[in-house]
Amino acid sequence: MATTSSSRPAAVLPVTDLRPENPSVPAPQSVTVSQPGETKLPLKQIPGDYGLPFIGAIKDRLDFFYNPGRDEFFRLKTQKYQSTVIRTNMPPGPFIASNPKVIVLLDGKSFPVLFDVSKVEKRDVLTGTYMPSTDLTGGYRVLAYLDPSEPKHAKLKQLVFFLLKSSRDKVFPVFEACYTGLFETLEKEVAEKGKSSFEAPNEQAAFNFLNLAFFGSNPADTKLGVEGPSLINKWMLFQLHPILSLGLPKYLDDLLLHTFRLPSFFVKNDYKRLYDFIYESSGFVQDEAEKMGLSREEACHNLLFATCFNAFAGMKAFFPSMVKWIGRAGGKLHTELAQEIRSVIKSNGGKLSMAAMEQMPLMKSVVYEALRIEPPVPYQYGKAKKDLVIESHDAVYEVKEGEMLFGFQPFATKDPKIFEKAEEFVPDRFKGEDGEKLLKYLFWSNGPETENTTAGNKQCAGKDFVVLVSRLFVSELFRRYDTFEIELGETSLGASVTIKSMKGASF
Ligand code: HEM
C-alpha cells in the first residue's frame, strides 16, 4: 500500500486484497493503490475547511470535546464531505498551538502513510500540533519527540531496546507477583464492599511491575513508596491537558485545559522524585548509555519517559480497556478462554511460558482484537516532508510539503472496508490463517503488527513487550477465574472499570 510522491499513482488491485479469503465476504469492488503508472482512482481536492482564523479553530475544538464529541465530530465530517480524508482543525489551537490545521486520515488505507518516515516528519509531533515544554522532561527533547533523521533517535532507541532485553528473564516471575497482588486487592474489596475499582490497583501493579522488571527496583522499598502512579498522573496531565477533557462544565473545562499551558513548575518536585528514583535504580543502563556516547543524565530522563509515560501510561489505558471488552463479551467467552488457557498450562507441566502462550490462539486473538477496537494511543501525527500523494479507498489526494497529517486510529482500525463487523468486538477475529492475514491492519504500535520496530522507524519500542504482558494478563486472569462481572464508566484516558464479582476457578 505504498504511495508515491508523484501526482500520478496507479495500478489496480481488487479489494479482496484487503480481506482474508472468506466466502461470506460480499463480492469485491475494484480499487486502486498508488504505484508508479496510471491510476483508476480519481484525483480529488481534500474536502473540508478550517473556517475563519481563530474562530474556526475554537469552534472545531468545542465540537471535538463537547458537542457532538470526538467520534461524532469525525463521523459527521465524513458524512458531510463524503470522504475519509478531510481538512479540519485539531485541538488545542489558540493560544497553545500556533497552527491547528491538519489533514485527518479516517480510513485504514490512507493511515499507514504516517508510518513512512521518508514521507512524514515525526519531529515534536507526539502530542500533535503543540509540544509540551521540555521543562517537563529535564530540559531534553526525549526520544518519542525525535524524528529518525536526528542522530540521537537511533542511539536512544537502542538504549530502550537494551533495557527491554535485559528485563527478559524477570518479566514472567515479576508479572506473576505484581498481578497476583492486583487480583488479591480486587478480591478483598469485592468481598468487603461488593465492588472494586480496577483503576488504582492496576496502576500500582503496572508501576511496580515495570520498575521491578526494568531496574530490579521495588518502588515500595524506596522513598517513592506507593506514590509513583499519582506523581506520574499529575506530570502527564501537565503534558496532555491541551488534548484532554476532565468532564468539568464545558467552558470551564475548555478554559482551564485548552487555552493556556499549565506552568511546569507545579510538577517540578514530583518530576524530581521520579527522576531520583530512576537515577538510583538504573546504574547498569546508564553505564550502557555512556558506552553509546550518551550522558547519564540524558539517559535517565529518557528512561523516566519510557517507563512512566510510554509504558506506564500505555498499560494504564490498555489493561482496563481489555477488561472492559472481555468483561462485556460475557460468560461464554470467559469459559472458552479459561478452557484454552488452563489446558495449555496443564499440558505444559503447570507452567505459563512464552511457548505455552503461543498455543493459545483464542487468547492471542482477544488481545489483538482489544488493541484493534480501542487503540490505546488513538492519535498519530506526521508532517509531510515533501509534496506527496495519499490514497483512501475512494480517491487520491495531493498533500503539500509542511502540511500536518493526523491519523485518528480508532476509525482506521474499524474501517468497514477492511474489517467485517468492524464496530463489534469479535474475540476470534485474528484466529487462524485468515485471521492472521488481518494483522497487517492492526496499527496500535504506530506501525503494522506484522512489522518490526527498529532504530530507524517510529514504531513503539515496546511493541513485543506490550503484546507479551497483555497475553500474560489475560492468561493469569483466566488461570485464576472462571468469569467476572463489571460496571463501566469513562475517564479522560479511557475506560473506568469497576469489578462487581469474580468467580474463582472451578476446574
Ligand atoms: C500498552 C502499552 C503501549 C502502547 C499502547 C504504546 C503505543 C505507542 C505508540 C502509538 C507510539 C508511537 C507514537 C507516535 O510517534 O506517534 C509509541 C512509541 C514509543 N513507545 Fe510505546 N506503547 C506502549 C508501551 C511501551 C513500552 C512498554 C515501552 C518500553 C519501555 C514503549 C516505548 C516506546 C518508545 C521509546 C516510543 C518512541 C519510539 C520512537 O521514537 O521511535 N512503549 N508507543
From TrEMBL:
One Gene Ontology MF term: oxidoreductase activity, acting on paired donors, with incorporation or reduction of molecular oxygen
Family: Belongs to the cytochrome P450 family.
Region called Disordered, residue ranges: 1-37
Keyword Lipid biosynthesis: yes
InterPro entries, A to Z: Cyt_P450 (IPR001128), Cyt_P450_E_grp-IV (IPR002403), Cyt_P450_sf (IPR036396)
Cofactor(s) needed by this chain: heme
Annotated keywords: Fatty acid biosynthesis, Fatty acid metabolism, Heme, Iron, Lipid biosynthesis, Lipid metabolism, Lyase, Metal-binding, Oxylipin biosynthesis
Name this protein carries in UniProt: Allene oxide synthase, DELAYED DEHISCENCE 2, CYTOCHROME P450 74A
Pfam family, one: p450
PANTHER family: ALLENE OXIDE SYNTHASE, CHLOROPLASTIC (PTHR24286:SF255), CYTOCHROME P450 26 (PTHR24286)
Organism superkingdom: Eukaryota
SUPFAM superfamilies: Cytochrome P450
